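Throughout our pipeline, every protein is held as a single compact record rather than as scattered files. This encoding replaces a full spatial description with a residue-level series of whole-number codes. The remainder of this section carries one protein's record, kept here as part of the documentation.
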Amino acid sequence: MTGRIFINYRRGDDPGNTGRLFDRLQEAFAPDQLFMDVDNIAPGLDFVRVLEEQVAQCEVLLAVIGRGWIDARDPDGARRLDYPEDFVRLEIEAALNQGKRVIPVLVGEARMPRAAELPETIKPLARRNAVRLTHERFRADTQGLIKAIQQALNEVEILRRSQAEVLRRAQAEEELKRAEERGVEAAKVKRAADEQAQRDEVQARLKPSVELPSKRIVKSALLIAGAATLGAVVVVIWAIGPPSRLSTEQPWPLTEQPRQWAGQPPTPTEQPHQTTGLPTPPPEQPHPTTALSIPPPEQPRQTIRLPTLLTEQPRQTTGLSAQSNPRTVTTIRIQPLLRAEPSGDATSPAGSTVLPPGSYMVQLAAQRSEEEAQAAFRALQAQYPTVLGSRQPVIRRADLGDKGTFYRAQVGPFATPELANQFCGNLKVAGGQCIVQKN
């Protein structure tokens, strides 16, 4: 049995019976369960502080009351209970304030004090049920007191265990609640990870065999746009440059001259059309687009290869007289630049398929060899038969310089971008990927 017993008494008030009570209690309880100021306070400690701490640690306080307990006086004749610093009063006040079990023990002829005889702070002591110890029946009376103390300690122990059990259950419920919350959070994290893994797997299956990196596409598009802009500026400058510059330099021929081989007779050149018998027309005005000055007949013409952007259209004259000298007027019409291939510096078909300019192609894959490009198209055709089942691939070779040569598997041509985008959209709905390019 655990629990401590505090023995409160006043020195000089029947000390013999108080000592006999302490000896009898030592037979029933362990020494560390009993506290009596005479033997338990070490020298040098604060007596009041130690008493307060000991009272706080006890479960039962025995207030031993003898015949001189109420009227005990100091040397000046004042009653000791009236002093707030009285040790007996301080111990009983602490026990009552802390809710301890306080048992009055009446020794010999002592009587139970009335509330009016007690200080205000310890008046509740008058309402406590007391135990009397007589000289004739001291052993039997102390045995009854011991049973009462044991019962009080048992009640205190039961209450302590009940409180400990309530606290343990509350802690267990709190821990279970936290564990459930952690489990729910872990399940959410795992479910999110599984969903992300499924999305990654689906995206991995839908990726083409060779991806075109977005940075490479942007860089190539910027380079192509810059080259196209520069080419357009150069052509415009050449076309509408100042006449003085065009007249002093060697003019460009509007048609290519045939190549002469050794030992082969020269090919006769076409003479300009002449008209006779018509009056001399007024000076010819430049064509609304751009007019170039014609070099003198004796000045030799140089052969310079031009792109197909320039075409020659001779103007015919009417209403000229027969006496006028024949003249030839030539105009140059500037055609719009064709859009360059957006994914490479030099792109050409791998086979002999000729694609009309201005048409649109749908690119499905790009590989390092023509055979791999054919194989990639067949694999996509088998995977998406509803879209590619009746289509034939167009394999086009693209030389990307330092990055190497690629063979592009394409489908087309389509006459308008709407048709190409519609076909590419159908393939994306089926789960594939594609891009639209213009020839």
Remarks:
- The first strand starts at residue 5 and ends at 8.
- The domain at 339-438 is CATH 3.30.70.1070 (Alpha-Beta Plaits).
